[in-house]
Amino acid sequence: MRSISYEIKRTMRSRFVIILIIAIVGLSALLAYETASTSNSLNVPTTPEVAYGYYLNNNNLTMVSYVYDGYGNPVKNVEIYYQYNGSDYRAISSSKGYANATFQVKYSSQINVLINYTYTRFGTKIETPSIAYTINLAMKYSGLEIYPYIFNKLNSTRMGILAMYVGNNGSSSPNLSFIFLATNSSRSIPNSFNYTFYYNFTSISIKKIFPTIENINDTYYIEVKNSNGTLVNIYSGLEGGKSFPIILLGKLSTYSPMTQSRLQSLVFSGISSILDLFIPILAIFTAYLTYGKDRTSGVIESVLKRPVTRGELITTRFLSNAIAIFIASAVAMALVDLIYFYYFSMYFSVIFLTELIWTYFVEGVAFLSIVYMISHLVKSQGALLGAAIGIFVVMDLFWEIIPLAVISALGISSSSSTYVITNIIFDYISPAGYSNLFQTLITNKLGSFGGITINPSAYGLTYLPLIAAGLLWILIPFLIAYLLAKYRD
Amino acid sequence: MIEINNVTKIYSKNNPPAVNSLTLKINDGEILGLVGLNGAGKTTTIRMIAGILLPTSGKISVDGFDVVREKVKASNNVGWIPELPNFEPNAKPLQLMRYYAGFYKNNDEMEKRIRDLLDMVGLSNDLNKKLREYSQGMKKRFAIAESLINDPKNVLFDETLNGLDPEGVKFVRNLILELKLRERSILLSSHILTEIENLADRVAIISHGKLIKTLTKSELKNLGKMKIYIEIINLNDFRENVEKILKKYGTIEKTDGQLVLTDLNVQDNEIPNILDDLISNKIKVRKFEPVGESLEEYFFKLIGERQ
To answer: CB–CB of A1 and B52 under 8 A?
Structure first.
């Protein structure tokens, strides 16, 4: 019958349905993007760091400081205080990140300069504790210093080094070869390495280097050679002015492989809340706009006089509405899956994806059924709209709060079995709790309230009763609506 | 053909039946007028035939198909134009007509038929408007078009003339007659009893859901007691003689310069004798018009007697 295709088109072309589907899909995608893009970049420092070096010209010491962010990019307007021999010398980082200061020093074997810096964050001035930078006066300049653990902006799970070179009178470096040595050996300095990566640069003052990472679990070392193949000492003023031929960098990846369990946590940490709110709105008001309103206003009579039975008419409209809900939940979850795949190279398992789509489809269609049923119990459009809003407010919007209020009123302890059972009962009472039940089944944690680990099967939460509950939620109200439509004017 | 057999409709047990043991038949090519006061059960009867309401008891069949048990087949041959048509307000006429057409067996001609019907009812210049922008009269015209979408063999007009302009009334009147010529069975409910009187082959009068009387076309022409409207040339010269003659046949009333002879004591076939009597007495008669009661007069008299 062509009318079914019209009903589907009619539902899908409804401005309300289009807006809601876009909102559901768009917000889910946005949350997926947000959770995916930040889940592995939590370690990137948000405060400025400073790389130091120096050069001497007679008695004049020039302290060279480069202020950088977590990605090694320059940070301006950071005030650096150099304290030497009771005097403070101040420099402010330029747009290139440099904050240099020159002052006279007295010759001895080595001197310490105390350094601290201040920066402004969220309108608050923050001052770092002082650290000692040791200058070996036997060396006219610091040469090469290496600061590990800057993050790659293109892949924030990958780390590299910031190399700083201060030569004679502040000159840049000669040709240098940076050699990254990767090993999975547990020895402090292994005899051999699995991989060696060379990076040649000349005339560097500041250089960000992100080595190739073959294996995220490998430990990395770095050594630097000049054009003659001689090892270059790597100076460290912050470690007492010592020089090192090789430096242990450690692991250069914060990446931990994605698992289905982590993917599920990402979904349940935000996207499920969006769907729990918007899918019932879509269902309740689509049912009102495409069936209930027509029935209570009498518009449906212009259809009922056609060669169609009352049963066929209600079923056709119900199915077209259910298809809209299916599309909303399926497209939202498919898009979330694609976004997560983009970030984590892992799709949801077919079972999990099916569970998600089923959960939100059932939740939506159950609300749909309820409004169809009420459409046959009230006489006026106003009463139906009021009932629809009431159902949304009580059975969806506040459904997380109502069990809490009841539990609190009854004085049930959150560590008791009664608490778990009460929550599960409430989740069974409203279709809004259906996703919580599935969440509990999948994660072994008590759905909406989280935190409490339970054994779902010990509380009767297995696939069979959950699927049966979903079907009953859909079928019982719809069957009542169907019978009322068929046998009552 | 529509057959209503002993149909009762009860909306609420606390109220009397809206339709009570009603039996009617509308033959192919026949116009049945349905008259009654408000609440008499006319619209309920029509809505039951259209499949909108379920009869509490009894059976309604359309072309032999039960409207409850064989709704699809029955409704396939019924067109219903309600008193207050109610459509999806945001739909456009063509879009909605195509939707309605989807319920019937379609052929390549359907699109043309949809446009022809909308043209026929005078809406072809308003196809881009949404139905919520239509006036009540335009909605009624649209209702006529959409009700005829499948060229039904049975058409129900429920107070269709209400809310139509004079041109619309004329259009509907002609449409009904054209449908009758095409052997459609037509149920016509209207408060405008003169229209019913002029159009209907039979008239069913119902009151409180019950059928009181069914009148045939010939009965409609001779309703109730006859009256004779008489105009005499130079009446004042012959008044005494005229009154003496006419009193032999009934009661004389005067209205607008003419005499009306009522309460006739002669049979209808003896009425010409009255004219003969006047002429033989040298009375010059300008007008001698025997008429029966109008349907309206008859209806109110009948309903009044019932109540």
So the answer is: no
Residues from chain A that touch B51, judged by Cβ atoms under 8 A, are 304-305
H or E stretch including A65? strand A60-68
Compute the average pLDDT of residues B231-238.
Answer: 87
Alpha-carbon distance B302 to nearest alpha carbon in chain A (angstroms): 33
Most confident by average pLDDT, A9-13, B45-49, B245-249 = B45-49
Range of the domain at A225: 49-250
Inter-chain touch B87–A487, beta carbons under 8 Å: no
Q: How many domains does chain A have?
A: 2
User: What per-residue confidence (pLDDT) applies to A131?
Assistant: 94
Q: Are residues A271 and A338 in the same domain?
A: yes
Find, in chain B, the residue whose alpha carbon is nearest to that of A15: B90
Instruction: Measure the CA–CA gap between B197 and B219, rounded to whole angstroms.
Output: 11
CA distance B104 to chain A (A): 7
Q: Where are the domains of chain B?
A: 2-220, 223-306
Sign of CA dihedral A22, A25, A28, A30: negative
Cα–Cα dist A434/A441, whole Å: 11
Chosen domain end from A225, A250, A275: A250
Distance CA A165, CA A204 (A): 6
**Residue-level pLDDT at A3:** 64
A9 and A98 in a common domain: no
Which residues of chain A neighbour B63 with C-beta distances below 8 Å? none
**Chain A residues lying within 8 Å of B147, measured CB to CB:** 305
B87 contact residues in A (CB cutoff 8 A): 299, 302
Return d(Cα A435, Cα B37) in angstroms, integer: 58
Does residue A194 share a domain with residue A80? yes
User: CB-based contact (8 Å) between A311 and chain B?
Assistant: no
Shared-domain flag, residues A35 and A70: no
pLDDT band at B269 (very low <50, low <70, confident <90, very high): confident
In chain A (489 residues long), the average pLDDT of successive 10-residue segments reads: 73 89 93 81 79 92 95 95 93 96 86 94 91 90 93 83 95 94 72 80 94 86 92 93 91 80 86 91 94 94 94 93 94 95 90 94 96 95 95 92 90 88 92 91 75 88 94 96 93
- A226 and A134 co-located in one domain: yes
- Chain A touched by B103 (CB under 8 Å): yes
- CATH superfamily for B2-220 is P-loop containing nucleotide triphosphate hydrolases (3.40.50.300)
Express each pLDDT in B85-107 by its tens digit.
999 898 999 989 998 998 888 77
Cβ distance of B104 and A306 shorter than 8 Å? yes
Q: What is the SS3 assignment for A91-139?
A: EECCCCCECCEEEECCCCCEEEEEEEEEEEECCEEEECCCEEEEEECCC
A403 lies in the same domain as A467: yes
Q: Does A214 touch chain B (CB under 8 A)?
A: no
Greater confidence (B294 vs A263) lies with: A263
Partners of residue A6 in chain B, C-beta under 8 Å: 98-99, 102
Among candidates B73, B76, B87 on the partner chain, residue whose Cβ is nearest the Cβ of A302? B87
Distance in Å from the first CA to the final CA of chain B: 32
Yes or no, beta carbons of B51 and A304 under 8 Å apart:
yes
Q: In terms of domains, do A296 and A377 share one?
A: yes
What is residue A186's predicted lDDT score, i.e. its pLDDT?
60
User: Is residue A44 situated within a structural domain?
Assistant: no
- Rg of chain B over Cα atoms, rounded to whole angstroms, equals 24
| ipTM entry | 0.82
Of A194, A220, A250, the position where a domain reaches its end is A250
Note whether A315 and A447 are same-domain residues: yes
Nearest-neighbour CA in chain B from A384: distance (Å): 17
Distance from CA of A264 to the nearest CA of B (A): 42
Does the beta carbon of B238 lie under 8 angstroms from any beta carbon of chain A?
A: no
User: Which residues does chain B have within 8 Å of residue A10's beta carbon, measured at their own beta carbons?
Assistant: 99
Task: Give the Cα separation of B302 and B220 in Å (integer).
Answer: 14
What is the spatial distance between Cα A440 and Cα A97, in angstroms, rounded to a whole number?
A: 51
Tokens, residue B212: 């009181």
pLDDT at B300 over 80: no
The domain made up of B223-306 has a fold known as Alpha-Beta Plaits (3.30.70)
Q: Classify residue A33 as exposed, middle or buried by CB count within 10 Å of its CB (0-12, 13-18, 19+).
A: middle
CB of A299 within 8 Å of a chain B CB? The answer is yes
